[in-house]
Amino acid sequence: AAKRDASACAASRDPLQIYGSAIGSRFLLRRRFPLLARILPVQRFPSRRRPLFAILAFWVLLCGSACERAAEPADAPEAGPAAEIAAVVSGKLNAEAFRQQIEALEKALYLDRPETADDYRAVGRAVLELVNAIGRIEGTHFGRSASGKLLFFSARAETGSEDPLIRDLTPIRKEWEKLRSQYFSRADWFRRAGTRSSRSSSSHPQARPEDLASVEAAVTRLERLVLRGRLEVVALGEPKYTLERIGAEGKTQINGWMEWTARWAQDVREATTDLPQYPGPKGPGDLVEVLEHVDMAVLYLERISLGEGSWATPFARQWEDRFARAEKSLRAARSVLSRES
Questions:
Q1: What is the DSSP string of 61-124?
Q2: What is this structure's pTM?
Q3: What is the pLDDT of residues 177-206, one digit of tens each?
C-alpha cells in the first residue's frame, strides 16, 4: 500500500519539476512545430505516460532550437577599400585604388598660378599620403619598391629648387610623371606637364588683341636683353677673390657687379613696363598663360647677379642656368602668342 501511495504521489507531481510540463510542451510544440503537435497530442496520453512524452517534447524543442541557431548565417566581414578595388593590375599598382591620393598630389603639382615655397612642401606632404596608402593596401615587393622611390621623391620635392630664390615645379612634375608611368597603371584622369588647366576653353573670356601685342613687345625686349646681358656678365667674370681674403682686385670686381646689377634691374623693369595687369586665374586663358611665362622669365633675370651662399657675386654655372631658364620661359611665351595669332 505504501509503495502504491508513493507511485501515485510520483505520478501526480507537477511534471515541471522533472523536465517540463506536458501542457507547456504542447503549447511550445504548437508555436514552433505545429505539425509535430498534431502528431503528439500530449494531453490525451494517460497520466503515467506524461513524463515520458514531456521528455520527448523537451528534447525535440532543444534540438530544434540548436538547428535553427546553426542555420543562421554568420555575419560577413565588412569589405574595405582594398577588397573593393584590386591594388595591382597588369603588374602595376592600380591607379584607381589610389585615385584620391594621386589627385591630391597632382592638384598640388599642376597649378594655375606661379609657384611658391609652400607649394614644394604641399607636394612633399601629398607624396607621403600616397606612400601611406600604398603601405596600407599593397605589401608586395613591388609595392615596397614604389614606396621607397616615392619617399626619395618626397624628399626631393621638400628640398625644392636648386636655387632657393627660384620657384619652378617643372622638374618635379617631370619626375612624378616618370614614376607614375613606371609604377602605376594608366588612367585617363592623369594630368601632364604643360596641360595644367584648359585656360583657352570657352569658359574663359578671350584676351584683347592690344594686350597680346603689349606682351609680345615685352617678350622681344627681354630677348634682346638676354643677349646683351650674357656678354656683360662674361666681361665681369667669376669671383676673383676667396671668402677668406677678398683683396683689392676682389673689391673692384664686386663694385663692378653692384653697378651692373643696378643698371640691369632698371633695364628689366623698363622692358616690362607696358605689360597688361595680371587678370587672375579666371581671366582670359591665353593672357594668363603668357603672362605667367613672362613673369617667370623676369624672375630669373632679376636674380642673375646673386651669388651662392656667402659669395657676393655669381659663378658662371649660376648665371648661365638663370639665363637658360629665362630663355626657356620666353620661348614658351612665344609659343602661346603664336598659337593665338
A1: HHHHHHHHHHHSPPPPPPP-HHHHS-SEETTEE-GGGGHHHHHHHHHHHS-SS---HHHHHHHH
A2: 0.47
A3: 888 988 898 888 888 755 444 444 444 567
